[in-house]
Amino acid sequence: MSPIEPVSPASSPVSTVSWSDPARERSFHAWLDSLQGLGLVPGSVRPASADASFRRYLRIDTAHGTRIVMDAPPSHEDCRPFVQLARLLRAAGLQAPEILAWHEAEGFMLLSDLGSTTYLQALTDRPDQADALYRDALAALVRLQGLEVRTQVPAYDRALLLREMQLFPDWYITRHQGLVLSEKEQAVLERSFEHLLANALDQPAVLVHRDYHCRNLMLCGEPGSASNPGVLDFQDAVWGPITYDLVSLLRDAYVEWDEAQQIDWAVRYWEGARHAGLPVRSDFGEFWRDLEWMGLQRHLKVLGIFCRLYHRDGKEGYLKDLPLVWRHAHRVASRYREFAALAQLLEKVAGEQRRVGYTF
């Protein structure tokens, strides 16, 4: 992490955090008061970032830099998986936040600060650094997948995979597009889901972050340095398909890469994973097909999640990212005969035309 200039109490900004629950606000300030041995400046609390869940993150000054506060109401969020995974990742040499204090009963947590520059912002500011940034992310992913924690995280099993895909018809097709599928179209979805389930469950299994992409990776040092990237939002980690996090990174919802570049990074990952002894397919063509199909499962899910965030939670900002996620899903469905009918269904629902890309 870059060094942070000390901030004195006198020069600290006034808190700009709003609270809907006065009792929770009082509990928060009482907790901060109990941590004064850490040199916190309570009046400096301000928003750091929002979350797609009920969590929110605040930034607070100290005499020696800044820290992050997680506000996660226990009635909505269980912080224990976050705590467990943060410690596991740090033990493996990954740059995850350090837990400095935790009020488990109230859902308040004090964390080290990995900075405010996400990979997405870094790519916007310095697109020429993309290759170096992604090589760092690929190397970190290999280390993450090397953690043998099968018994310590939930399984990415058939029920969870299917429940995720069902978000696509429930929220994207029915709620967002206002359409009702015919029996024939419903059968198309069910066949497509079965193909995707069979492939995902047949893949070698490792630790899966589940949201390994440019908004959850932080620039914590110069590209190529050991401190890069910082890894966030790992609390939903599971034990599942080895291609899941890679396709999350290469085909995320917020930045689009030429497919030739995706393949280049995928090959680099595949070679690094084999060298590290991870259970990737020995044939890259088979590995790439696994990655494509895994991505299709994820993108159908994300289409549903983004629509749910809008319609249920009032988070409109995710709607602008729907077109890219749709393109990711449609491209894969269009190039494999198993999903030809799904591609046509996607076109009907969104009123778009086919685009094709590389296949093996």
From TrEMBL:
GO terms for molecular function: ATP binding; transferase activity. Residues 45-274 form the Aminoglycoside phosphotransferase domain. Keywords: ATP-binding, Nucleotide-binding, Transferase. The keyword Transferase applies. The keyword Amino-acid biosynthesis does not apply. PANTHER family: N-ACETYLMURAMATE_N-ACETYLGLUCOSAMINE KINASE, TRNA THREONYLCARBAMOYLADENOSINE BIOSYNTHESIS PROTEIN TSAE. This is Aminoglycoside phosphotransferase. The lineage of its organism: Bacteria, Pseudomonadati, Pseudomonadota, Betaproteobacteria, Burkholderiales.
